[in-house]
């Protein structure tokens, strides 16, 4: 049986070890490293699928937990799956819902069987198990689906993290056994283990023995200092198979995307570009700017002098500030278009610099320009 998801390594940067590749999926190829915009509820907030294509979004992520609650996976399946439902013909990844469930805190109860939780919408009782998560994700029909896991908060004790990691491995086995559409959808395992190296090593070893078509690093970028993030990233990524996609979950700031690529990661996702857009903030080649601030009231230049997106071609900072200050939806839309384009452009450059064996120099230049290095 041919796997739904395969990875092709094209080049490794001699300067950093970063890798350039292609992920082959049922809905097309993904050039890596790649940033994936998040379309939580079968939509990237405020953007149409056509606009996502214009900003070169190769793949988007949708959220199992939210779609399980509404409109319900049965409805999406009846519509022909997520691709048909939302009119998106490129690859889609669905997370397992684990992170959202565990972020509910006191509203959920974890057992070996799964997680009982209260809906954040109406307080009704719901239950997700590895088997139920697979039922939902199979119905949604994404190209890549994630195993149901537990994401530990930061910080967590060694004892709790160990029990959680071992449960995640058992759940991963149950997910694989329950996965019904292996020729059409690839199921990735998620390496957990918190901030303990031996637990990360054990998690990776056990999950690799289950032979998933791809692997993710979960449980970092959850509020820890950057040094801890880099430490875990840099000792976990080499544990992952070189011939399969490597996914770092929940990362979207420019510096973290570059560091992930240098570490050998292929895929990252984050809500950041659209979330900060809703607060009037733009990512630019000179660093973040809060365009709603008064300093931009009479600034008739474009958001980013180096950007050629629809927003930058047609609108000024002053106009976008006016839209944001008056709560006009167009302001959020224009900032979202720009921010996602900024990150897809960044990853275009990262891929070129990997091919040119120059990613280390690019990182230093970018950091200085962006303001990470004073």
Number of strands: 16
Which regions contain 5 or more consecutive residues with pLDDT less than 50? none
Note the quaternary state here. single chain
- Taking the alpha carbons of the first and last residues, their distance comes to 53 Å
Percent helix = 40-55%
Major pleated sheet = 8 strands, parallel
What is the overall pLDDT average?
96
Structural class: alpha/beta
Going across the biggest sheet, name each strand in turn.
4-14-13-12-11-10-6-5
Report what the structure shows.
By secondary structure, this protein is of the alpha/beta class. The protein has 15 helices and 16 strands. It has helices at residues 49-54, 64-69, 73-78, 82-86, 98-102, 130-140, 158-178, 197-208, 226-236, 254-263, 272-277, 310-314, 317-325, 329-355, 359-370; strands spanning 6-12, 19-25, 28-32, 34-37, 60-62, 92-94, 108-110, 115-118, 125-128, 144-146, 186-191, 215-217, 246-248, 267-270, 281-282, 289-290. The strands form four sheets. It has an eight-stranded parallel sheet with strand order 4-14-13-12-11-10-6-5. It has a three-stranded antiparallel sheet with strand order 1-2-3. Helix 7 links the parallel strand 10 and strand 11. Helix 7 packs parallel to helix 8. The longest helix has 27 residues, at 329-355. It is globular. The mean pLDDT is 96.
